[in-house]
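Ticket reopened. Same input as before:
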Amino acid sequence: MTGKVVTVTSGKGGVGKTTATANVGAALAQFGDKVVCIDADIGLRNLDVVLGLENRIVYDLVDVVEGRCRLRQAMIRDKRLPELYLIPAAQTRDKSAVSPSDMVRLCDELRPEFDWIMIDSPAGIERGFRNAIAPADVVLVVTNPEVSAVRDADRIIGLIESEEKGPARLVVNRIKPDMVRRGDMLAVEDVLELLAIELVGMIPDDEMVLTSSNRGTPVALDGKSKAGQAFRNIARRLRGEDVPFLSMDNEGGFLGKLVRRIRAGGD
Amino acid sequence: MTEIAWVEGTQDTSALVQIKGIREGLLVTVGDGAWDDIHRALLQHLDQQAGFLRGARLALDVGNHILKAADLGQLSKEFADRQLTLWAVLSSSPTTERSAQSFGLATRLGGRPRIERGVAPLDTALHGGESAVLVRRTLRSGFSLEHAGHVVIIGDVNPGAQVVASGNVVVWGRLRGLVHAGAEGDEKAVVCALDLSPTQLRIAGQIALAPKRRGKPQPEMARIINGQVVAEPWVPKREKL
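Engineering reply: fixed in the latest deploy. New output:
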């Protein structure tokens, strides 16, 4: 088994990196793949909370890097999904406790045992971001349909390209179809036109995401939620399946519809 | 600061001189104290580690020490005598930084030019000694391309990216970032783009904001006419540059 390292990043904070990491990770594990999620946001850890594993942390990423424990000991196994593991971040240290080469070494050690290594990157373009993308095979760039988030995503994609990481794939999170229809929100096509990278997911804004994050149950495990469905679709696309995009309207529709909308919006 | 007593023949230099590996090679860090002592300790340390260091590229972090050009010259020579290359001097003292720069030494790590800091100009000599650079990629937010000559970009210039040229700028794509043509004062410089909607457009000393575009994008050329930046649609017939 040679696992793929998927780094989830965004530049801007609060666009849904951690949510995306937790949900795509959980969805991959639900499909039977072996997944480890690494929280690279040292000092501001969140992934453990979203996955509901906070109370089981004994060792963390920095303990592994500094040799205070074995890798195995820092891996927390999710009780709901036996194929899902978490390596939490340290809360009492900062980004400088880990170097990009530490991350590369760590992932090389994990690759033989896992199908997927999901890394939750911190916001920003500094050390923490460099750490997170150093071992990446695929980078998921998460953005929201708003100008500032898209601007930051553009910068991030530029940095990923200059580090020769990637390919970078785009996840547009928190889409409000009503606002898009009224012309008050950037449409996914507008975002795509600027960023010009492959789209791998469109997540509708969904209150369920928030409630399930608070409860520590990834929304992707909820069969009814539309956002959960969208996250599961990202996981399937990562696994190489050709999955049509969910329609953001409530009428049902496919990628072809998106293409038609791009054409219609072009004049 | 503690006084460091130096006794000739003391072997332990590790408190004063530390060597560690970094991405760019090796970084030598020296402690505080009188420069003469540090200097001596440094050389002794290098001699002790001669076998390990031979042929190495070293960066030297001198901390607060203030070094004159002569000091650095001597140091550089002493490094060379030991078959070591001194390529960078890091310092928190501006004087030392200046001396280092006058010697052509880097004063920052990661000094190798990164792509995000700009794109290396492809020097293409044209007749009349003008040079142009051709960039075949999209400039994303945070990229900056500066060139003394013309700039041709095949790709988009996204918002947050900037292009500064002393000559003309041609963008075969969407121009939505900041562009400055004729940056050294050439009022004849022009900016052309397939879709000319920059956040800001400057030609020589004139600054213009692109008006909100109505309708379909079309190729346009901006230039200075009667002291004002004017953008006009590109009409093949009317060609009198």
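The first helix of chain B runs from residue 35 to 48. Chain B has two domains: 13-102, 118-233. Please confirm and we'll close it.
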